[in-house]
Amino acid sequence: LKVLGSRTMCARLEDAVFDDDAAKSMSLTALTSGQTVQVGDYRVTAWKTVHMETEDSLIYLISGNGKQYLHAVDSAELTEEVYDCLQRQHIHLDGVSLDCTFGLLEEEYYGHMNFRQNRKVRKRLEEIGVADERTRFFLMHISHFAGNTHEELEKAASQYGFEVAYDGMCVSL
Questions:
Q1: Residue 71 pairs with which residues in a beta bridge?
Q2: pLDDT in tens, 104-137
Q3: What residues does 53 pair with on adjacent strands?
Q4: Per-residue pLDDT for 70 more than 90?
Q5: Which residue in 134, 130, 34, 46 sits closest to 83, CA to CA?
Q6: What CA–CA distance (Å, rounded) separates 30 from 81?
Q7: Which phi and psi (to 5°) does residue 155 adopt?
Q8: Is residue 66 within 8 Å of 42, Cβ to Cβ?
Q9: In angstroms, rounded to a whole number, what is the distance separating the alpha carbons of residues 103 and 163?
Q10: In 3D, which of 96, 43, 41, 103 has the Cα closest to residue 73?
Q11: Distance CA 135, CA 95 (A)
């Protein structure tokens, strides 16, 4: 198992794995913001995001097979650095997963997004020309803290062209 993540995540995973056989079966690679690595047929680029003040958190652009996927989960809204890099590299995103921890709540919380913020991020990605009507947007990292059901979030999300993820969901871009 090849695991990529921030220094904090790699250190925490090393501390959590007590079984020697499990540890031997894993390869941990700590990435820093802006770093790109090749993993098989895929290129993975990490960018810094805001999640917790006590850790270095990353989101990822995964490129391969002619597709581009942005995985921005456990994250606040994208930073200007991310928007700039995507635009400067003339990326066209085929898929985007966004954190939706706080669902339909209007309040904003540090390190996560709600549905209003998801719409704001989508609009900005479209404005800078890296996403369009062909881009699929997924809401993930959904929490009970929001107080809405999956069906309620799906109803609201579908009006704006978002798909709400669920356990076991498989997607082809």
A1: 60, 97
A2: 998 888 788 999 999 999 999 999 999 999 999 9
A3: none
A4: yes
A5: 130
A6: 20
A7: -60, -45
A8: no
A9: 13
A10: 96
A11: 5
pLDDT tens, 21-30?
A: 777 788 888 9
Number of helices (H), then strands (E), in the chain? 5, 9
Integer Cα distance of 114 and 110 in angstroms: 11
Kindly state the DSSP code that residue 89 receives in the 8-state scheme. Answer: T
| Tokens linked to 146 | 């929001």
Q: Beta strands of the chain (E only): which ranges?
A: 2-5, 27-30, 36-39, 42-49, 57-64, 67-72, 95-99, 136-140, 162-164
Q: Give dist(CA 71, CA 74) in Å, integer.
A: 10
Say what the pTM is. Answer: 0.90
Q: What is the pLDDT of residues 14-61, one digit of tens each?
A: 888 767 777 778 888 899 999 999 999 999 999 998 776 767 889 999
The rounded distance, in Å, linking the Cα atoms of 36 and 38 is 7
Mean confidence (pLDDT) of the chain: 91
Torsions phi, psi of 164, nearest 5? -95, 120
The two structure tokens encoding residue 158: 């579908």
Q: Are 79 and 48 in contact (CB under 8 A)?
A: yes
